[in-house]
Each structure stands twice: as structure tokens, then as C-alpha cells.
Write a structure and sequence with these properties.
two-stranded antiparallel ribbon; Alpha-D-Glucose-1,6-Bisphosphate, Chain A, domain 4; alpha+beta; 192 residues; 6-stranded antiparallel sheet; 36% helix
């Protein structure tokens, strides 16, 4: 009788593990797995997007809205530096250091420092948004690992050959970084 209970318990555990594996693979949004999800320029990860400026807003007003958005969106501690080129097509360049939280539970906090540069250029009737020079400082409480986006989130390093999942440990960086850029762009669109 004990033997049957042990076998039943083992089968139950194996079935549960298989169900979790299937659930995790089926739960990945295809937008994270496409070849264009993480764009590379000259071997470097560079996210970019053009955001239309509403009619009736000139360069100065758009620039002021961007500066107001930067002040509201980022805490003072997150902004490492801010630069404005003062030209006819002003560019706001910001170096950011913020936390990207993967999992937060009672005694379990999995996060990384996300360090990146963000350029917002007022160009004609659009804002040109660019996120680049992306780095991570992971496991800072233990040994600490300095990682780059090129090592962590590119297709060749993060996405499996079948393009239906991520290699272990890479998916959270990829999805978190893509979501961060999407959140920045969405928030900027609302600010205009």
C-alpha cells in the first residue's frame, strides 16, 4: 500500500511540474518573441519610436511638455544626468537608473537595476524617442553581475531556436525591458 501511495505522489508531482511547464510556455505573449521585438543597430540594442505631436503644438510647447513629463515620470534619484542641446530641434538626453522588478513576494524580491540612456528629440510634428546603452546590475545583494542588453535580451541569447520560448533566466530581462520602453512611449503620448 505504501508503495502505491509513493508512486501516486510521484506521478502527481510530475504531472504538476509538466502542467507548470506547459502553462509557462503557453503564457508568453508573441510580441516578446518576434524578431523585431528587440531592435539592434550596429550590434547594439536601440529601441526607437516616433510619437506624433498634436496639431497646434509648436516646438517650444512640445519641449516644455517633454520637460514637464520628465519631471513627473522620473524621481530625482533615477535621473543621473539631463542634457538639452538648445537647437531648433531640441533633444532631451537623460541617463536613468531605476529598478526593474521581476518578482516581489514576502521574503523574495527579484529585481535588477536598469540603467539606460533616453533621448527625446522634438523633430517637426513628432517626438523621436530612443532608448539605448542599456545595462543591468543584477543580484546586487549577493555577488552582483553587470550585464548588457546585448548579452541578455537579443534574439540570439534570449529566444530559443523554435521561437516559442526563452532560455532560462533571459525572458524576464527581455519582457521587462520591452515593457519599460512601451510604458515610456505610452506615457509620453498621454503627456502630449
Amino acid at each position: 500500500m505504501k508503495k502505491y501511495l509513493i508512486i501516486f505522489a510521484m506521478l502527481l508531482c510530475i504531472g504538476y511540474a509538466e502542467a507548470q511547464l506547459i502553462k509557462s510556455k503557453a503564457g508568453i505573449d508573441p510580441k516578446y518573441l518576434t524578431e523585431t521585438a528587440v531592435p539592434e543597430v550596429n550590434g547594439k540594442v536601440v529601441f526607437s519610436r516616433s510619437i506624433a505631436i498634436a496639431n497646434g503644438i509648436d516646438h517650444d510647447q512640445a519641449y516644455q511638455k517633454v520637460m514637464s513629463w520628465v519631471s513627473q515620470f522620473y524621481n530625482r534619484q533615477e535621473v543621473l544626468s539631463r542634457k538639452d542641446n538648445g537647437s531648433a530641434n531640441p533633444t532631451v538626453r537623460i541617463a536613468i537608473n531605476e529598478y526593474l522588478t521581476f518578482k516581489k513576494a514576502f521574503f523574495n524580491l527579484d529585481r535588477t537595476q536598469l540603467i539606460y540612456c533616453l533621448d527625446i528629440k522634438v523633430n517637426g510634428n513628432a517626438l523621436e524617442v530612443k532608448m539605448y546603452d542599456i545595462k543591468y546590475y543584477y543580484d546586487e545583494d549577493r555577488e552582483g553581475k553587470h550585464l548588457t542588453a546585448e548579452e541578455q535580451i537579443t534574439d540570439r541569447n534570449a529566444v530559443n531556436k523554435k521561437r516559442n520560448g526563452f532560455y532560462k533566466g533571459y525572458g524576464k530581462f527581455r519582457t521587462g525591458t520591452i515593457d519599460t520602453f512601451e510604458h515610456i512611449c505610452t506615457s509620453l503620448e498621454k503627456a502630449l
